[in-house]
Amino acid sequence: MAKVEIRTSEAPTPVAAFSQGVRKGNLLQVAGQVAFDAEGKIVADTVAEQTRQALRNVNAVLAAAGASMDDVIMLRVYLTDTAHFGEMNEAYGEFMKEPFPARTTVYVGLPAGLLVEIDALAVVE
Question: Quick one: which of 16, 20, 15, 17 has its CA closest to 5?
């Protein structure tokens, strides 16, 4: 079973040695997405807007692989500040429906200007 790179112009191009997404069999891993637009520019300075953009980017990579948020079984959210959880969670809720995927939220350092990063694991049938 071959490992297949997933690539789309609808999400930012990685700036390092990684793929936007990788599929092997029915598993699809979407790399961490941040609030960059397709040209690589930060689109907002609030946690809510950055969360929305990161999730739009996740959606774009999922779509390029023939998947959707309905196929996601796990999301990891990386925040720079514990005070941002509520705002992120509210924006996150705009994209999710039941049954919700599992989720882990961790607090990390991100490059200047970035407040949130989100990656996803999906099963594609």
Answer: 20
Q: 10-44 b/e with 16+ CB inside 10 Å = b? A: ebbeeeeeebbbbbeeeebbbbbbbbbeeeeebbe
Q: What is the arrangement of strands in the sheet containing 102-107, beginning at the earlier edge strand? A: 3-6, 21-24, 27-33, 116-123, 72-79, 102-107
Beta bridge partners of 6: 21
pLDDT digits (tens, 9 = 90+) for 38-93: 888 999 999 999 999 999 999 999 999 999 999 999 999 999 999 999 999 999 99
User: The pTM is what?
Assistant: 0.96
Query: Any idea what DSSP says for residue 42?
Result: B
Among the listed residues 88, 83, 107, the one whose alpha carbon sits nearest the alpha carbon of residue 35: 88
The secondary element (H helix, E strand) that includes residue 54 is: helix 47-64
The one-character DSSP state at 88 is H
Identify whether the C-beta of residue 95 lies closer than 8 Å to the C-beta of residue 53: no
In this structure, the strands spanning 72-79 and 102-107 are parallel
Question: 3-class SS at 92?
Answer: helix
